[in-house]
Amino acid sequence: MIRPRPYADPYWCGVALGLVLLGAYTLAGRGLGASGAFASGASALVASVDPGRAGASPYFGAYLAGGGPAGDWLVFELLGVVIGGIASAAWSGRLRVGIDGGPSASPRVRLAAAAGGGAIMGIGAMLARGCTSGQALTGGALLSVGSWLFMAALFVAGFGAARMLRRLWQ
């Protein structure tokens, strides 16, 4: 069995992520975030079903005006995150296929909890006008009060949810 490498130093990774954020501002004029890529994909899906309605919608029309998913650099950012995550896991000897969960959580319960949590986070991203990565990295770097309040609320909610859902992992 291949022995996994140690995890990367979080402080150096934080500095590297800050430099990537600076590069995104410098080169693209925008910060980082993932929800924009999903919105661009949704606009393309709506446009394929009903182009007239998608073009008339202020929400979908804005994404379509930018060229749809192929013209949105956030789509390529998200693809890079997936490819980079897989490459990092392979390089460190941690790449495997499976469903993590505690002994009391069946794979079906774990997948349902992950899908439910993802749906709640997606709705929250739309209500907050950005995903957690966009709020924390981009909004935090811009010293946006709303982003800082969002992140504080996220941590409070996360601690509360962890206490309620801990039994699934025991």
Structure report:
With about 170 residues, this protein is mostly helical. It has two domains: about 10-95, no CATH class; about 100-170. Helix content is about 70%, strand content about 0%. Helix 2 packs across helix 4, helix 2 (about 35-50) crosses helix 5 (about 75-90) and helix 7 (about 130-140) runs antiparallel to helix 8 (about 145-165). It is globular and about 50 Å long.
What is the count of DSSP helices, taking H or I runs of 4+ residues?
A: 8
Query: Overall mean pLDDT score?
Result: 82
What gross morphology would you assign?
A: globular
Strand share of the residues?
under 5%
Number of domains as seen in the coordinates = 2
The arrangement of helices and strands along the chain is HHHHHHHH
Radius of gyration, CA atoms, in whole angstroms: 19 Å
Approximate helicity band:
over 70%
Q: What is the fold's blueprint, element by element?
A:
Elements: H1 10-28, H2 35-49, H3 51-56, H4 58-65, H5 73-92, H6 107-127, H7 132-141, H8 145-165
Helix pairs in contact: 2-4, 2-5, 7-8
